[in-house]
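Final report, results section. Input specification for complex C-07:
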Amino acid sequence: EDQVTQSPEALRLQEGESSSLNCSYTVSGLRGLFWYRQDPGKGPEFLFTLYSAGEEKEKERLKATLTKKESFLHITAPKPEDSATYLCAVRSGNNAGNMLTFGGGTRLMVKP
Amino acid sequence: NAGVTQTPKFQVLKTGQSMTLQCAQDMNHNSMYWYRQDPGMGLRLIYYSASEGTTDKGEVPNGYNVSRLNKREFSLRLESAAPSQTSVYFCASSEIGGNYEQYFGPGTRLTVT
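Structure output:
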């Protein structure tokens, strides 16, 4: 059974204070690790897909990295508009329907 | 290009009532999904449709039924609503192949009293 654990559950940062969010996973044959951003009252918004250990992807102040057991979402010099819940999900090789298993999310709050 | 749309946005039901949540996508995706999101539980898959004409159970299918009406539309039905079905429901779609990322609708907030 695929499992995804995100930590911390909540993170408070001051504007400009860089940090990282963690996503640990157990999966049978990783076929993709996905990061999403979710604003209150809205649906998740796709950010990145990572496929193999060592891969990195960047978008503005966000950089996602992947190892064989976990992924990190690094936030450099965050701004208040980066406040959101960040979700991590995995797709494994043992499902035919492209199903994703999601973690519980990290709620990020950036104060000015 | 609206992406994934869901109706209604909000709904209040009494225990035992039935309703259908509607979902449509205009991205020509083959696969569609229904999730529920509860505090502390994350997103859990209810049902999915890998392609038009097929549907399969996800992690939490009990109490729900689905219909893949055509390639664009995928509906979720609650036949006899229960308070445990109070949740936010999201529809998503994805292509087969490529990056496989799923694109989500805005959600339906359902309360069962």
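The longest strand of chain A covers residues 30-38. Chain A touches chain B through 23 residues (CB under 8 Å). This concludes the modelling results for the funded period.
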